């Protein structure tokens, strides 16, 4: 348990000034994730500028609503909610299908998540994810998104030579990590926003012709993406379901982590998990119905609490409301969705590096306690290699896979997750149990 004295505890009401300043920090932190993921997904589906603006608006509104519901009815903790990288891997694998296929699967999986949260299944699901499985799965997320990073940075539609883009991205990433290391408090918490702003300016200077505009180039009907026409694609549903189970475990870790940092009584944890994962399920159903990427609670919230020494959940109400208001300003949204893809790619790498660091921390903490063996290395190593193999299959090989199962077989994250589960709980199960009884 983290020993620290906070200026405000979880259930403390805060003064108006604190509500505004802390709310601004939470808004910037959460909105930065929304902007990054909105840009990535809009690119996946080759959205027009107007469609990209509408997508970002929907994602901002749903994220704002989710933050408010989690604070009032869900886990009731100061935790950021935002688009899920795990679900992004499923969305990438489902791009051969109409967007409604992914959305339909997300609605169904959100409903399944509610059932899991409200029954004894939540405990059983959590038991399947041993520290070795969790560490491996967290490693698979950034690994299987590498083709997405590369596509964003090396986007041929963006001005500039390929060599210049790669050098620009490398230098920017080193600068981001240096700033993240040295900055504190407000500046560190809002780093991604400043990278979005000044990185875009730098890209505009380095690559003349980079488009930055307040004009979305048209508009999209307000009902677009809100009246879902279901498309039941079994392969997409299975792919999203496997990813969603991993998302639930991610949610468990985030809620527990924030609760521990915020000094919440251990007796309250079970109720927080049940309520929090229920709200996550509801919001993912809403996300699917609105045609946007689903979300999850972020473990990054713990760092925000420690930096500000403010563990009150109430400033997040202001943050949720602010995101909903921001969504009603199309010119601003229009500007942020024109951020160069090289900037988006660099920030996605920054986010996923933090994910990988957490994964390595879990594996080192567990495997470094004298429990490591050759077979344990096989469980981790094979799962990572099979995920990498499936993620980097040649286009001809992917095209040869029947479309109905392509979202599963061509999804490196799903392949790696299934592999680590089979090895951990089936192939090496007997030997581990004998070893524990020896």
Automatic annotation (TrEMBL):
Cellular compartments annotated: Membrane
Major location category of this protein: membrane
This protein's record includes keyword Iron: no
Coiled-coil residues: none
Membrane topology listed for this record: Multi-pass membrane protein
Record field: transmembrane: 24-47, 59-77, 97-121, 133-154, 160-179, 191-214, 226-249, 314-336, 342-364, 376-393, 408-428
Similarity section: Belongs to the nucleobase:cation symporter-2 (NCS2) (TC 2.A.40) family.
Classification via NCBIfam families: NCS2_1
Name the record gives this protein: Purine/pyrimidine permease
Organism listed in the record: Methanocorpusculum vombati
